[in-house]
Amino acid sequence: xxxxxxxxxxxxxxxxxxxxxxxxxxxxxxxxxxxxxxxxxxxxxxxxxxxxxxxxxxxxxxxxxxxxxxxxxxxxxxxxxxxxxxxxxxxxxxxxxxxxxxxxxxxxxx
Length: 110
Fold this sequence. Notes:
Blueprint: H1 2-6, H2 15-31, H3 37-55, H4 60-70, H5 87-93, H6 96-100
């Protein structure tokens, strides 16, 4: 309350942060059954990737489908180009027809 009174630009409620944390609170029971620390770590990486997609206004499902499609043909030293932050620029350089195909190699742009 004090922060709100000090700076009138702040919102009086925190509904946005509560909504963002709700998915974590609801799934907490399911996370007990990941199996081991490696599985939990992999799930945390996936959650971080989905959150990054949302931050950069990308559809997480479409992004993951594109990444799974491109990853086998992409040079390992250039994986950063596939990150959500750079995805739009990288996607614009790819041949659109190749990404629509379910299987087969894609041409990696220089």
